[in-house]
Design a protein that fits this description.
Elements: H1 5-8, H2 28-43, H3 48-52, H4 55-66, E1 74-77, H5 80-90, E2 96-100, H6 109-112, E3 120-124, H7 129-132, E4 139-143, H8 155-165, E5 168-172, E6 189-193, E7 205-209, H9 211-214, H10 254-270, H11 272-289, E8 301-304, E9 320-322, E10 325-329, H12 336-346
């Protein structure tokens, strides 16, 4: 299953890249589209309005399909923090936001800077998050998969609790979308940067919203691209924004979306369920080979405590260090050969489980 030919035909041969949690590898289809776009740009034959502009909507539609959201309610932008800022600005003064203590700052700082409006951020241990949700909490801001340790959040349990307390839920899916099946149902926001597991250029991000949270959000970045009819929105009043959540979009970085549209098309063709099985099978086998326990909610990201400091750049494969721990991540271009190489190199320097 983990060596299906359908995976390999999309990528150049590579060995030992185990760091998708930092940046995903660009598929050949996306790379070719970008090369073609740059060539047309350099030669003066590019038609940005006709050839590039609509690709943002193509990627938007594919992301909406991936997370089972209404494309009409999906906004796009350049980064997670830019998208989260829209949510933070929409919260009424005095709102209380609950986050895990290790939450990635792009899903945290936009709320913290709202302190002058009386927005209070409460951070708790990730294992205490669900029990901390009560009717005083306006919004839970949590990652579907934690960047630091690969922990897969129990979103179903959060949904169940929040449905009783009336609390909104905003999920950062940057370390999840592209390998972990996600469902917008029961959530108020899914925000995601595309340059990791969505295999897209930096400068692409998505914000899928529920009807109730969408109605609260102001179009802070209102511009010509958010106009109801783009070609008629270049000059002059009155304000005439789209009825869809394109009204929330900053104007897109065209070439980033040239790549993103191709990458999301590829992921859609393969299917997230198939990618999930592939990625988790590799991570599970890796944990077994290095005598580490497999979590009850398996993750494509493995975080390891080492018995001694190491220089990750000296290893014969690409990994990263986060929070003082070695982080290894597996995606659809990885194989069992990658797993066995990493296990062989790392087994002797990994601390045994507590």
């Amino acid at each position: 299953m983990t060596n299906e030919p359908s995976f390999s035909i999309y990528f150049e041969d590579q060995h030992g890249f185990l760091d998708t949690a930092s940046i995903g590898l660009l598929p050949k289809t996306a790379a070719n589209s970008l090369h073609e776009a740059v060539d047309h740009w350099a030669c003066g034959t590019a038609r940005w309005f006709d050839d590039w502009l609509g690709l943002t909507d193509s990627a938007r539609d594919l992301f909406a399909k991936m997370v089972h959201a209404d494309a009409h309610l999906v906004a796009t932008g350049p980064s997670t923090s830019v998208m989260v800022a829209l949510i933070a600005d929409a919260l009424p003064p005095g709102s209380r936001v609950l986050t895990p203590a290790i939450e990635f700052t792009s899903n945290l700082f936009p709320y913290l800077v709202q302190a002058e409006r009386g927005i209070e951020v409460i951070s708790v241990d990730e294992n205490q998050l669900i029990e901390a949700i009560d009717s005083s909490i306006s919004l839970v801001a949590v990652s579907a998969v934690q960047s630091a340790n690969g922990h897969v959040t129990d979103l179903d349990a959060i949904k169940a609790r929040a449905s009783v307390t009336g609390t909104m839920i905003a999920v950062d899916a940057t370390q999840a979308a592209g390998w972990l099946p996600l469902d917008m149902n029961g959530l108020d926001a899914i925000v995601c940067s595309g340059y990791k597991w969505l295999l897209s250029p930096r400068g692409t991000a998505y914000l899928a919203l529920s009807e109730r949270l969408s109605a609260m959000i102001r179009p802070l970045y209102a511009n010509w691209y958010g106009g109801e009819v783009i070609a008629d929105s270049f000059y002059g009043a009155p304000l005439r924004l789209s009825t869809s959540n394109r009204r929330l979009d900053p104007s897109p970085a065209w070439l980033s979306w040239v790549g993103a549209a191709q990458s999301l098309k590829l992921l859609d063709q393969i299917g997230i369920e198939a990618i999930y099985r592939h990625d988790v099978a590799l991570a599970t086998h890796f944990l077994t080979l290095i005598d580490q326990p497999v979590p009850s909610r398996p993750s494509a990201i493995v975080s390891l405590e080492l018995s001694k400091p190491i220089d990750p750049t000296a290893l014969p494969f690409v990994v990263s260090v986060r929070g003082g721990r070695l982080r290894v991540s597996f995606h659809l271009y990885n194989t069992m050969d990658d797993v066995e190489l990493a296990a062989k190199e790392l087994k002797e320097i990994i601390l045994p489980p507590n």
